[in-house]
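Quick one, tokens below. Sequence please?
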């Protein structure tokens, strides 16, 4: 029984999800005639209280589109040094939008409002790039699934308003944060100009993300999505998968979080482990004792058919998900308690 905790993107569609996909009504979504996709977009838009949502083949494309919407070439966005848009989108920020990133040295991928304010270039100082956008991430991926303090986001919104900056949320795992902090999608829709969410992470759909915003922005986003090659045709089956995921896999995210807590507790006791980052959602990041060779530890796990990811700089990561079952969990805790 392989236990694959490298990521929550590794899940396979369940029987119920496959059935929903097979029976979905479809049409050409480039003509906005896919009934299942139109229904999903309307559903998610209203969930967040935004006027329009657009489906994307990946979270990366949704984020890249948002950045393009809010910036002009030569300008600058502000994000944490751990941000996915900076670290893991292939340099798309510069390729697609011609903008640079002002990196903030935040805590676990999260910045304070005063850090954001200090990172803004004075608009009349024409030697520096013009700051036009702030991008936040919730939960933070490289930050170990940490959740933002909503009050701090409100303060950042105030900073953005004062300096006429756009505010985008990379919410690939926002669902996890909502469940963990008992917050609502509406609270996030109120604050951000644009929000991207993924169906292919904890929710367990095979493909898909959504970008949300007001009507005028999303009409522009439609053209950008087309330019990036993200206009797709009969994608009702993908919408059906995402819709099924929202119906059946949302509330259960709390189980993934509990399992991640259990894993962290066992790792904390292990002599091989130096430190475990606080676990708030479904991601566990930990460091080995310097005298334990990383390759040895990983090989030992591999011998038990356990896969984890190597984040570099001595950090290892485990992510719990839909396909990580109770039986696997019992088994893994046993293996780790001897590691
Ligand atoms: C996974 C992820 C994305 C989007 O990734 P895709 O693989 O392109 O769907 C964006 N932001 C964060 C924080 C992520 O974890």
């Amino acid at each position: 029984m392989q236990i694959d905790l490298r990521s929550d993107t590794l899940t396979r569609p369940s029987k119920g999800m496959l059935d929903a996909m097979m029976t979905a009504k479809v049409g050409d979504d480039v003509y906005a005639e896919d009934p299942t996709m139109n229904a999903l977009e309307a559903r998610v838009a209203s969930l967040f209280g935004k006027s329009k949502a657009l489906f994307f083949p990946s979270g990366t494309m949704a984020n890249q589109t948002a950045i393009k919407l809010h910036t002009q070439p030569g300008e600058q966005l502000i994000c944490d040094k751990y941000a996915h848009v900076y670290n893991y989108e292939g340099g798309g920020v510069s390729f697609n939008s011609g903008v640079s990133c002002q990196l903030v040295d935040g805590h676990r991928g999260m910045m304070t409002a005063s850090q954001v304010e200090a990172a803004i270039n004075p608009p009349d100082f024409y030697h520096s790039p013009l700051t036009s956008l702030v991008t936040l991430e919730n939960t933070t991926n490289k930050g170990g699934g940490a959740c933002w303090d909503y009050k701090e986001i409100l303060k950042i919104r105030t900073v953005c308003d004062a300096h006429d900056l756009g505010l985008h949320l990379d919410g690939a795992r926002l669902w996890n944060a909502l469940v963990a902090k008992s917050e609502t999608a509406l609270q996030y829709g109120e604050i951000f100009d644009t929000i991207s969410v993924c169906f292919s992470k904890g929710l367990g759909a095979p493909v898909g993300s959504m970008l949300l915003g007001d009507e005028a922005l999303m009409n522009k986003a439609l053209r950008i999505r087309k330019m990036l090659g993200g206009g797709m045709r009969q994608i009702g089956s993908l919408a059906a998968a995402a819709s099924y995921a929202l119906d059946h896999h949302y509330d259960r995210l709390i189980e993934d979080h509990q399992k991640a807590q259990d894993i962290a507790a066992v790792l904390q006791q292990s002599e091989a482990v130096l430190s475990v980052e606080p676990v708030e959602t479904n991601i566990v990041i930990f460091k080995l004792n310097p005298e334990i060779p990383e390759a040895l530890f990983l090989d030992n796990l591999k011998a038990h058919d356990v896969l984890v990811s190597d984040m570099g700089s001595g950090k290892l990561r485990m992510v719990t998900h839909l396909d990580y079952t109770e039986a696997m969990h019992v088994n893994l805790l046993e293996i780790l308690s001897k590691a």
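The mean pLDDT is 97. The two ends are 18 Å apart (CA to CA).
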